[in-house]
Amino acid sequence: MPTFVYMTRCDGCGHCVDICPSDIMHIDTTYRRAYNIEPNMCWECYSCVKACPQNAIDARGYADFAPLGHSVRVLREEDKGTVSWKIKFRDGREKDFVSPIRTTPWGSIKSPQDYTMPSRDDAKSQDLAHEPEALNIGGKLPALTPDRLKVGVV
Ligand code: SF4
Ligand code: SF4
To answer: What CATH number has the domain spanning 3-100?
Structure first.
């Protein structure tokens, strides 16, 4: 479900623009309000929804599986440290979900350029770049070894 912006709530702060990994949240140069320039390219990560201090961004379902009448509202309450999602179904049912806001300070996560450049030999490893350090788990990734697999499944 891609996102859209309520223009009357947006104040043009640009947080959604900064955080969008798909670079599709832009500020309209005339109205100074954010908008999703290409909903088809939305990762549906909802980083923008959670970052918006004005609760100005909502998710909108595609018409084929989310018929008219539904709504997905998000409420970010920094004082409580929560993000709440209210899902309203077309038949009137509602479901509420509450999640904690991530408390990692802005700018405290290492950038890719802060890590050592991968070597050619790293391409033979099953770890992705910067793993396991970037996952903050220490040591090696927990992985199945052949002796822990069922007989015949190797
Ligand atoms: Fe960008 Fe994610 Fe928001 Fe989509 S949900 S507009 S990809 S930040
Ligand atoms: Fe507007 Fe919210 Fe984006 Fe700020 S984060 S520009 S208020 S939609």
So the answer is: 3.30.70.20
